[in-house]
Amino acid sequence: MPAVETPHLEVDVGDIVTVSLNRPEVLNAIDTELATALESLLKRLHEHPPKPLLLRGNGEATCSGVDTAIVSNPDFEAENVEFRHTIHEVFDLLRLYGGPVGFAGKGAVVGAGMVLAANSDFVVLADDTTLMFPEIKLGLLSRPTMVILADTVGDRLAKEIVLTGEPITPERAREIGLVNCVVRAADVVETTRRYLDQTREYDAELVASAKHTINRRDAKTFWNRNEADLRGE
């Protein structure tokens, strides 16, 4: 099973692979080192028989988005091509992973954190979580994220989320289908784990096939994948 080469990421391998973002001092904002570590880990996980994967964050928040030192650069698009490719690869690998992925959200699930959640199979939020996609306020847009949101909640609500960049309450996120359930912060990880534990009762290949079939209908949302990749060629 994969080793981790950065203190910014913790991995615990058991019946469920628990991956913890570990930059609590910046609310687990994603910098280049963390993005690269996530990409490397997910690539290696793809090489093994898939186990359920639980994604969480240490400290007060799960993920506050891309590190402000990166995203505040006015030339972000031009000067961070490699970083953008890496983080997009993380989203692709998460969505393409054969096992079920659970996202345990608390504190802040913002920007790239919300995209991590959108590419997971089960999403559980604490009732005091700040959930938002503020990229438009930063002059940025992510086409795949917009398509995933529209597929999940419909065009009108997707436009509200993307075009306003304003927070969504956890309870409203549950009502519109962005998350599976809302619980107390103390119960987020355990509730997410229960979803994943239930899938362990079933045939792993069947679970992977069901997930793949559901995801294939929005194959155009993948960031770095071409059509040949999606056909398995």
UniProtKB/TrEMBL annotation:
One of its GO terms (molecular function) is catalytic activity. Gene3D superfamilies: 2-enoyl-CoA Hydratase, Chain A, domain 1 (3.90.226.10). SUPFAM superfamilies: ClpP/crotonase. CDD domains: crotonase-like. InterPro entries: ClpP/crotonase-like_dom_sf, Enoyl-CoA_hydra/iso. This is Enoyl-CoA hydratase/isomerase family protein.
